[in-house]
Each structure stands twice: as structure tokens, then as C-alpha cells.
Write a structure and sequence with these properties.
Keywords: Hydrolase, Metal-binding, Zinc. It comes from Flexivirga aerilata. The chain contains six helices and 16 strands. It is of the alpha/beta class and about 280 residues long. The strands form four sheets. Strands 1-2-3-4-5-8-9 form a seven-stranded mixed β-sheet. It has a five-stranded mixed β-sheet with strand order 10-11-12-13-14, with no helix packed on it. A two-stranded antiparallel ribbon has the order 6-7. The two termini are about 15 Å apart. The relative contact order is 0.15. The structure holds zinc ion.
């Protein structure tokens, strides 16, 4: 499905349709009143954004063959995502890549395994990485505990970020970045230090790719609920609330990475989610 905002077109490309987690593993303070189910079912989605000047990929998915012995939900994917992406854009034709943040399910797809080496998937693309996000990941790598989740973030750096850096394809950027035609990469910190959203605006039209500011629609009922991966939960809450208020006020389209697109409306109690399509 293609969405358009003025002259900019957006196509959603799903890496994984169903990715299940125990609710308390994702949201340690979740209550049955907030979410009564036994599992949370996420997707992993990426977005191809075409402006009159460039073709951009927002988030690259988890990628295949990654070794994640701690964050096992990210371990050993074998999907046909790159084949499906190629029906929208060939990797060689991507001009710009922006990952909303450098967690494994958003930047792992920057590289693929070729003859036992990790090589960049998007050989021509400038990979725009906020200076703060790269410094944050590099500082974690420097202190990586081999038994904890941080060890898999270090592996993510080594197999998915460093090869792109070594190939000279990463531009460390200061935010915001204006890519023209209403496309802006904007700071949205909290989930990670340098997390970004990608905003698309044209006149009254507004859409935003939100990365991990939101993981599931039930969060509309309690925007303060922290995700287990939040680097700074208070900041993440503040950023999440600003985004949801902006969407509700503008009528803009939310393009999430872990559930389907839709709109936010205000209710007497807070906010409600209006999916574009039935189901996720
Ligand atoms: Zn994620």
C-alpha cells in the first residue's frame, strides 16, 4: 500500500508479520486492565520514502543470520525481506538510509552475510546516523557485559554498524536533518539516546514514522508505561506524549514499525487508536 504526503510517496515493506512476546517482558509494569492477552504480537516494518529528489529507506529491519544469544527474539532470522524490498526498490537504488535507532531490529538489516563477511546491503546509500546515537552505542560497546543484553547490542554494532562505517557510508549528523519536500529527520530521544522520527509534511498533511516511540496500540491507554528497552523511560514518555498529541491535533498518519498504520483521536480519557485497516 502506498501513502502520499504532497509529492512524497511512502511504501510499507514488512520484514516479519508476527513477532510474539510476553507482555511483561516488553512492558514490566503492564497490568491486566491495560492488556489482558497472553502475548503481544508485533510486526517488523520498514518504509520506503520517495521524494522527487531521492529514495530513502527508514529502518532496515532485523536482517538475516544475526547471532543474538541474549536477545534471542532477534536471533537467526531467515526471511525473504530483501526480495520483497526489491519489488519496491533495488538496494542499489536507495540513496539515503535512516534508522530510527540502532537497536538490532531496526539496523540489523543494514548488512548481510556474504562469504562469512558482513557487507552493506545498500552500497550507494548515505546512512544518516545522529552523532549522539552512534556515540551512545559505541560507549555501550566499550563497556559490554558479555552475559547481558548489552552484549547483543555490542554484537549489533560489530556485525551491522561497523561494516557500514568501515565502508565509509555513514554520515554522522546533527538534528534536525531537512531532506527537502517536507521530509525531516527529527530528534525523539528516550528509547535510545539519539532515537529519531521521520516526519513528512505538506500543507495540512502530516505523517510520521515513529520507530520505537510506540510498540503497540494498547499503549494509547497509558503513555507513561515504560518499555523494557527504554534507555531513559521518563524522556521516552515525554517524547511519546508529544508525538501522540501532535498526531491527534493534526489528524496525521502514524507509520509505526511494530504495528499497522493509523490515526490517533482524543477521547475523554486520553487517546484512542484508529487503524487504517482491520487487524494489525
Ligand atoms: Zn523495535
Amino acid at each position: 500500500m502506498t501513502y502520499s504526503v504532497g509529492p512524497v510517496e511512502v511504501e510499507r515493506v514488512v520484514e516479519l508479520e508476527s513477532w510474539r512476546f510476553a507482555p511483561a517482558d516488553m512492558f514490566p509494569a503492564v497490568t491486566p486492565e491495560l492488556y489482558a492477552g497472553d502475548s503481544l504480537d508485533f510486526t517488523i516494518a520498514t518504509y520506503v520514502v520517495r521524494t522527487p529528489d531521492l529514495t530513502m529507506l527508514v529502518d532496515a529491519g532485523n536482517g538475516n543470520d544475526k547471532h543474538r544469544p541474549v536477545l534471542t527474539a532477534h536471533d537467526g532470522f531467515h526471511t525473504d525481506y530483501l526480495d520483497r524490498l526489491a519489488t519496491v526498490v533495488e538496494p542499489e537504488d536507495v540513496d539515503v538510509v535512516v534508522c530510527t535507532h540502532l537497536h538490532p531490529d531496526h539496523c540489523g538489516g543494514l548488512t548481510r552475510l556474504v562469504d562469512a563477511s558482513w557487507v552493506p546491503v545498500f552500497p550507494r546509500a548515505r546512512h544518516l546516523v545522529p552523532r549522539e546515537e552512534l556515540a551512545w552505542l559505541q560507549s555501550l560497546v566499550a563497556t559490554a557485559d558479555v552475559d547481558g543484553p548489552v552484549a547483543d547490542l555490542a554484537r549489533t554494532y560489530e556485525d551491522s554498524v561497523r561494516p557500514v562505517l568501515d565502508a565509509g557510508l555513514i554520515d554522522e549528523v546533527d538534528l534536525p536533518v531537512d531532506l527537502g519536500h517536507g521530509v525531516t529527520v527529527r530528534a525523539a530521544p528516550g528509547h535510545t539516546a539519539g532515537h529519531v522520527v521521520v516526519e513528512l509534511s505538506h500543507g495540512d498533511e502530516f505523517a510520521v514514522v515513529c520507530g520505537d516511540l510506540l510498540h503497540h496500540p494498547f499503549q494509547m491507554a497509558d503513555l507513561a508505561l515504560a518499555h523494557s528497552g527504554d534507555f531513559d523511560p521518563d524522556r521516552a514518555h515525554q517524547t511519546r506524549r508529544q508525538l501522540v498529541e501532535k498526531l491527534a491535533d493534526s489528524g496525521g498518519l502514524l507509520l509505526p514499525c511494530h504495528f499497522g498504520p493509523g490515526h490517533v483521536t482524543r477521547t475523554t480519557a486520553g487517546f484512542a487508536w484508529q487503524p487504517l485497516r482491520r487487524g494489525r
